[in-house]
From TrEMBL:
This is Diguanylate cyclase (GGDEF)-like protein. The lineage of its organism: Bacteria, Pseudomonadati, Pseudomonadota, Betaproteobacteria, Burkholderiales. It comes from Sphaerotilus montanus. Residues 23-276 form the EAL domain.
Length: 277
């Protein structure tokens, strides 16, 4: 029965009380996951939509659970955010991601890696020093690291988010607004953020061929980003037609199943060589 309960709680449910025994058991499983090195860093390629060149990738976490197999992030990231455990996951992703960047550099490739931050990370006063320390230790230039933050994470506590983003920006890492268009973002606020990139949420991109409103949202987001001097990235590029339409609308970069699915980071360099061959 104990085992069944342990496996049963792995699927996160928003009604779950973070103090319940099921929740405590998931939390202890996550601690074990980090100690036993059960987390995996997957990378999904990002390409230049005009030239097709691979510009780098986005780091996405997976949990290789001994019984469950590969657990997707939506089954534990929201819980980790709610309990604060996300900070340990972010630290692990940053360490593993910067190591990957060092390997890419040593292989002679100039590619960027994007890592996702959560609301909690933006409130962590030690984050910038930690990132600086990692980049120094692995001799990776800050310009190769990009940090993705969702609109809603920023709007949770805009003043503190701005402080953290400013420090990260001074360090020289790239900053990206993730899932753009899904939260309520104040454009006036956006203008003041030291960001370099906007990512158009997948929901608009996957619907734009069928839905004229979504196509207009994509088009105006590209215009907005460019007017603010930002690079614009489309997520959810699933077809060649979507790629062609986005390129025609002037979108700079793309990411999606039609280009490449997230893959174990060890397979990424081989994928890049095959793509460019
Ligand atoms: P996200 O940051 O918006 O990441 C993009 C998600 O879209 C990924 O799902 C990716 O596999 C998926 N995706 C990419 N291209 C396509 C496509 O063409 N079609 C479809 N249907 N899906 C596509 P994944 O890896 O399951 O991650 C889901 C979410 O979990 C992420 O959304 C992010 O919010 C969160 N997440 C993942 N890894 C981390 C992490 O290390 N830290 C934090 N804080 N959150 C993470
Ligand atoms: Ca992201
Ligand atoms: Ca996204
Ligand atoms: Ca998303």
């Amino acid at each position: 029965a104990a085992k069944r309960r342990q496996l049963g709680v792995l699927v996160y449910d928003t009604s779950m009380d973070t103090r319940s025994s099921a929740s405590l058991s998931l939390l202890s499983e996550l601690r074990v996951a980090i100690e036993q090195e059960e987390l995996r860093l997957y990378v999904q390629p990002k390409v230049d939509l005009k030239t097709g060149q691979v510009l780098g990738g986005e780091a996405l976490v997976r949990w290789l659970h001994p019984q469950r197999g590969l657990v997707p992030p939506m089954q534990f990231i929201p819980f980790a955010e709610q309990t604060g455990f996300i900070r340990q996951i972010t630290v692990w992703m940053l360490e593993t991601g910067v190591q990957a960047l060092q390997r890419w550099q040593e292989a002679g490739l100039s590619m960027k890696l994007s890592i996702n931050l959560s609301t909690r990370d933006l409130l962590d006063p030690t984050l910038t020093d930690r990132v600086r320390g990692l980049l120094d230790r692995h001799r990776v230039s800050a310009a190769w690291l990009c940090l993705e933050i969702t609109e809603s994470a920023i709007m949770d506590d805009p003043a503190r988010a701005l402080q953290t983003l400013q420090k990260l920006h001074e360090l020289g890492v790239r900053l990206s607004i993730d899932d753009f268009g899904t939260g309520y973002s104040s454009l006036a606020y956006l203008k003041r953020l030291p960001v370099d990139e906007l990512k158009i949420d997948r929901s608009f991109v996957t619907n734009m061929e069928r839905d004229l409103d979504d196509a207009r949202i994509v088009q105006s987001t590209i215009g907005l980003a460019h007017n603010l001097g930002l690079t614009v990235v489309a997520e959810g590029v699933e077809t060649d037609k979507a790629w062609a339409l986005l390129a025609r609308l002037g979108c700079d970069e793309g990411q999606g199943y039609g280009i490449g699915r997230p893959m174990p980071s060890a397979e990424f360099l081989g994928w890049v060589r095959r793509w460019e061959a």
